[in-house]
Write a structure and sequence with these properties.
Elements (H helix, E strand, L loop, with lengths): L1 H17 L18 H21 L11 H19 L4 H13 L6 H5 L7
């Protein structure tokens, strides 16, 4: 699983670089290490918002109309996460594996803890 996620990150970033998202379109200067990280994080959030709206409306995607919108918007979020992670030199794939391993044994993720007062309920 780890290697698959690493390949997704590599491909997402390589595609973004190839399509000029990491180049200043006026000067041709590389933007690696210079893009606004807060803005990029909010673009990830916007993909989640678009997924929620697609799910709420039970709509298919407008660009891949044979797929549910929620599915495509979640894919867009993964693409953006992979791109940003690689650009920042992060090991998101490694953190993903470790975090999933940690979550398996988290007490506050147990059914009992979630049912308890102040548990992870909204």
């Amino acid at each position: 699983m780890f290697e698959s996620w690493r390949l997704i990150e590599d491909r997402a970033h390589a595609e973004a670089v190839a399509r000029g998202w990491w180049t200043d379109i006026e000067t041709g200067e590389s933007l690696i290490g210079k893009r606004n990280v807060g803005e990029m994080l909010m673009l990830i959030v916007s993909e989640a918002s678009e997924a929620m709206e697609s799910h709420r409306k039970n709509e298919n995607d407008d660009k891949l109309p044979h797929r549910p919108g929620i599915e495509v918007e979640l894919a867009d979020a993964i693409i953006r996460i992979g791109d940003l992670g690689r650009a920042l030199g992060l090991d998101v794939a490694g953190a993903l594996v470790e975090k999933m391993r940690f979550n398996r044994v988290r007490e506050d993720h147990s059914i009992e803890a979630r049912k308890a007062a102040g548990g992870k309920a909204y």
